[in-house]
Amino acid sequence: MTELHTPYFLVDEERLVRNLEILKDVAQRSGAKILLAQKAFSMFACYPLLAQYLSGSTASGLYEARLGREHFPGEVHVFSPAYREDEFEALLEYADHFVFNSPRQLEKYALRAREAGKQVGLRVNPECSTQEGHAIYDPCAPGSRLGTTLANFNPDQLPLLDGLHFHTLCEQNSDDLETTLDAFEAKFGPYLKGLKWLNLGGGHHITRADYDRKRLIRLVRRVKDRYGVEVYLEPGEAVVLNAGFLVTSVLDTLHNGMDIAILDTSAACHMPDVLEMPYRPPLQNSGQPGEKPYTYRLGGPTCLAGDIIGDYSFDNPLHEGDRLIFEDMALYTMVKTNTFNGMPLPAIVWRDKDGNQRVVRQFGYEDFKGRLS
């Protein structure tokens, strides 16, 4: 790692395959089809590997659908809160399953999708919140724009549907899925009979050490046995959980009531979820503030005062040139990076199962300039 110019993302094949083996086992034991949610991870250089374990990919719009079709063998599913008329015909070339968000969108587009040989679904909102403290990630929060509630569901549209879809979880265990599934069945179960599939969405932390996979398998089998439908899962984070790193260097240290270190990576530009979630990313060989002898506030090099990654403690003082390695940096990082302040984007590095590293992609001035006019 010391030979590569920082900052850069590194994705580790051995760790990635470990997750994929778990997902493949769950799919085989439950009978579910598991798809990659590209919104969390879109490193298409490793799509051929992922396709050996997963049944396809999911997209949030035209570009992700095209990426999935061009680089990820298997099914391509797309969902959008509202489709654009000027993109829909192009989407018909790439997606196999279209999930609509409202009865009005279903009425507008379903027949065109059906005539093109596509499967059609409706996202429903079971109005069952299982998240705590993160309303921004809760599709069942009051006033949510995501999914059709029972009050707005139109049974007369059932002939247009091949399946139903709900997505209510975020980094959660299968007990919350069971709670949600119970609520879904109470409201929409009667409409599922006669359809072809049910998509349980994403947010399932299936590859996390404490995840109850036996419960998930039981729930999938319950749905399949009770309704005779295919079951889809579309995790994003679980595919690459703990399989990626962000390697950065210390540019400077200073003191203002506490020790501060300026890094060559930015929370705002390179790991926006640190500010949006918010959360404190894991950092190798560090501790909580005060746990180790030397505590530093780690910040980025942008002009944003709040470009703060977090407070960490270390065994030794930090110095210019020291390398720090943030963990679990494959998910919701590369897909969210930006060039605010003219910040360069981190390179993307692949480490194979033998420990060999290669730079998959580097970015420069033209990538920054190309987004502007």
Automatic annotation (TrEMBL):
Kindly list the cofactors needed: pyridoxal 5'-phosphate
Q: Which GO terms describe its molecular function?
A: lyase activity
**Entries under InterPro entries matching the protein:** Ala_racemase/Decarboxylase_C (IPR009006), De-COase2_C (IPR022643), Nsp_de-COase (IPR005730), PLP-binding_barrel (IPR029066)
Question: Does Magnesium count among this protein's keywords?
Answer: no
What EC number is given for this enzyme? 4.1.1.96
Provide an example Pfam family for this protein: Orn_DAP_Arg_deC
**Residue span(s) of domain Orn/DAP/Arg decarboxylase 2 C-terminal:** 138-329
Keywords annotated in UniProt:
Decarboxylase, Lyase, Pyridoxal phosphate, Spermidine biosynthesis
Quote the NCBIfam families the UniProt record gives.
nspC (TIGR01047)
Protein name as catalogued: Carboxynorspermidine decarboxylase
